[in-house]
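Worked example 3 (structure in, sequence out).
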């Protein structure tokens, strides 16, 4: 039996880069959605790339646009709103780009003294970054934050999408940037990693923990005042720290990968006066090694053995877990840095002569690293004892050279059933990314059988799939998958897609009468985790 749901869309538009309200409208959505689906799918991504007569260079520079689908009593409501960051307000007020992003450097109005501005940049090793938090959504206690990869996050109301306080990590821990992919432990703590640049003559990666709550008498955001540094990992280079987008955790360890895609701090500090963007200061050293770091979550100390593999570039960890004295972790890796370059807007243009094709296929790699092994094992012996083609070979200096098992190729933006995070698992939900950076399908991958299920339609570009478990789930894939789909066909309307996670068959869709953007990341917030208006 087919059921119809009233779908309410509330959108926000811009005229001359100045926001105005647009009346809500209603459409019909087809399908049979599970009655237990109550809550909000909250998404984040770049939404505005032109301000006045100025344009951003890169897709990932655009001003953050939040959007949400609220499921309540058989109805679906849509909202979208630009994040009212300081960056947004400054740009809109000036009607031009005045705050620099990673791929776009902003310069002062010609009537201002460009030399004074340049010297103010040179007086700081790293200039203050943007608070245009356009990448992901983070939960801390009962609160939600829009995040990017700088030291700033912005608190938001997930029900109204209102922008609230700005939080500066650097006031609570010595970091200049942090990941947009934190983890959450069984006690509700938020775990994250940031880079501390040239602090007391050292550059290091700082693992920190934010508690979920504090005593009632404390002020707002006081959970950050109780932030705890768990461990610091020295960078192998003072002036060339590794770039990283995510990390992994198991029951007892944090998995951090120091890759040879590095930030050149001298180039970053002088980028403004040299007339280049910060992205040009990100350099891939293909001749270098990739180093694995494992931090014991109980002792807060790093495992002393040195583990490494060949040069590679990665953005997303999939999952990690422990088995019989080994740490097993799965990642999506590349042999070069072409993924970022393909998202320059000039390369994504239909009329572009530049190639927007990836030169490296994303590959899901499984590394199996033995923590417990015979210290007297012969040099050259493989110390992996689990059934896997992954190897860890002992070197003369006692380090272990690791080679992965290839699980599959051609997928990105991996998500799992987060109840299995840090545990042995079976399924990955992801977008398909072949030789083009824009996904055309979403996939479900069975790690054990290597079986893949697909959903895709002509002219459809789906976003990162979000798995939502059913309340009475008994198996890992008991639940649904949510994804937002935009259309490359001008006549097609974007829509929310709901799939049965087990069969990958469509349960329903809700078409939106707005120009939905191709977003990056987000989360589903169950109704029980949403504050009431009186709280």
């Amino acid at each position: 039996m087919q059921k119809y749901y009233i779908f309410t869309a509330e959108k926000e538009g811009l005229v001359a880069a100045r926001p105005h309200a647009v009346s809500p409208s209603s459409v019909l959505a087809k399908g049979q959605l599970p009655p237990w689906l109550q809550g909000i799918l909250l998404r984040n991504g770049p939404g505005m790339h032109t301000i006045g007569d100025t344009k951003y260079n890169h897709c990932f520079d655009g001003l953050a646009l939040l959007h949400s689908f609220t499921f309540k009593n058989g109805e679906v409501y849509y909202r979208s709103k630009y994040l009212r960051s300081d960056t947004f307000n400054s740009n809109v007020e000036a009607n031009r780009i005045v705050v620099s992003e990673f791929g776009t450097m902003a310069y002062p109005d010609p009537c201002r003294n460009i030399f004074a501005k340049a010297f103010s940049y040179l007086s700081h090793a790293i200039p203050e970054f943007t608070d245009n938090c356009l990448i992901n959504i983070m939960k801390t206690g009962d609160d939600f934050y829009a995040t990017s990869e700088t030291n700033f996050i912005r608190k938001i109301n997930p029900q109204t999408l209102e922008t609230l306080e700005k939080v500066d990590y650097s006031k609570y821990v010595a970091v200049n940037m942090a990941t947009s992919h934190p983890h959450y432990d069984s006690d509700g703590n938020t775990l994250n990693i940031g880079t501390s640049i040239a602090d007391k003559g050292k550059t290091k990666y700082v693992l920190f923990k934010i508690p979920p709550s504090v005593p009632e008498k404390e002020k707002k955001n006081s959970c950050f005042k109780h932030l705890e540094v768990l461990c610091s990992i020295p960078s192998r280079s003072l002036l060339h720290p590794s770039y990283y987008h995510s990390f992994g955790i198991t029951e007892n360890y944090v998995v951090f990968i120091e890759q040879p895609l590095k930030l050149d701090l001298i180039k970053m500090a002088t980028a403004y006066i040299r007339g280049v963007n910060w992205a040009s200061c990100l350099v891939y050293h293909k001749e270098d090694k990739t180093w694995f770091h494992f931090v014991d979550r109980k002792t807060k100390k790093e495992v002393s053995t040195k583990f490494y593999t060949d040069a590679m570039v990665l953005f997303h960890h999939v999952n990690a877990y422990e088995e019989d004295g080994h740490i097993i972790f799965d990642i999506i890796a590349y042999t070069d840095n072409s993924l970022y370059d393909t998202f320059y807007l000039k390369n994504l243009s239909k009329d572009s002569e530049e190639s927007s094709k990836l030169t490296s296929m994303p590959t899901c790699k499984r590394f199996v690293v033995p923590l417990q092994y015979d210290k007297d094992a012969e040099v050259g012996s493989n110390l992996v004892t689990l059934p896997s083609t992954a190897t860890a070979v002992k070197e003369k200096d006692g380090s272990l050279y690791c080679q992965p098992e290839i699980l599959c190729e051609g997928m990105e933006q991996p998500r799992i059933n987060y109840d299995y995070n840090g545990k042995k698992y079976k399924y990955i939900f992801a977008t398909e990314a072949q030789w083009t950076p824009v996904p055309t399908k979403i996939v479900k991958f069975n790690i054990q059988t290597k079986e893949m299920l697909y959903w895709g339609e002509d002219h459809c570009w789906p976003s990162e799939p979000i798995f939502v478990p059913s309340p009475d789930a008994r198996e890992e894939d008991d639940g649904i998958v949510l994804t937002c789909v935009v259309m490359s066909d001008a006549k097609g309307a974007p829509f929310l897609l709901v799939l049965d996670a087990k069969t990958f068959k469509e349960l329903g869709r809700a078409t939106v009468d707005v120009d939905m953007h191709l977003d990056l990341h987000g989360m589903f917030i169950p109704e029980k985790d949403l504050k009431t208006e009186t709280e």
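Notes: Confidence is low (pLDDT under 50) at residues 1-8, 13-28, 110-125. Residues 411-519 form one domain.
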